[in-house]
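Closing statement on the LLZGTKA7 sub-project.
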Amino acid sequence: MPHSLTPRDQLIVALDYPTAAAALALVDALDGQCLWFKVGLELYLAAGAPIVTTLRQRGFNVFLDLKLHDIPNTVASAVRSVSSLGASLLTLHAAGGPAMLAAAAEAASATPDAPTLLAVTVLTSMDNTQLNSIGVPGTPADQVLRLAHMAAAAGVPNLVCSSEELTALRRDLGPSPRLVVPGIRPTGASTDDQQRIATPAAAIAAGASMLVVGRPITKAANPAKAAEAILHEISGL
Ligand SMILES: O=c1ccn([C@@H]2O[C@H](COP(=O)(O)O)[C@@H](O)[C@H]2O)c(=O)[nH]1
């Protein structure tokens, strides 16, 4: 495994909730099993920066999934703005291009306590047809590889990708980049709106550093049991 992380270091639970109270109820229900939580657009727009600081005060690691995508100056300023919150990871869209990524990387390296930047390649909800329909030729894997090389050259080597691209990414980029993988579905779980999916074990075996899991845990009848099953599935791999 590229990063020698324990299963609890590898599982990020996506807190896709409309209020801080609902998100924190799920955190409480997991009863300390999970160390990482993802705050995405829904929760951040509803609850703002205090949800990040609350999670940090409770001792959890925060992945701030804001998927920044704007002109270089604006994205660099946003990186500086969120750096004081204490999130460990922050996303921006690789499709913003090399100048945007380089400006963000420069801002992060010059800002104390800046999060590690992750470049989002091709959303796991997109398949071949959807990608081609926005004017990108080829397969999601082609585009992920193209964006990954561009992002690394711009100073953002860590990525969000699907499990389907992991083998090729590890072949090209080696063990160092942190590859964070959503679109995780335990066997038998509903795929929802995800297109490029894998089981937790398959994604870790293919080279994922960390897994992002939302609905298979948050919508489960017993979220703690669902999280425990995923941790069990990836332990010993
Ligand atoms: O390509 C991407 C990038 C981010 N996500 C986010 O991950 C979670 C996945 O939630 P599930 O409920 O497990 O599908 C969600 O917050 C997305 O915004 C992604 O799915 N794909």
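The chain has a mean pLDDT of 97. With this model delivered, the sub-project is considered complete and its resources will be redirected to Aim 3.
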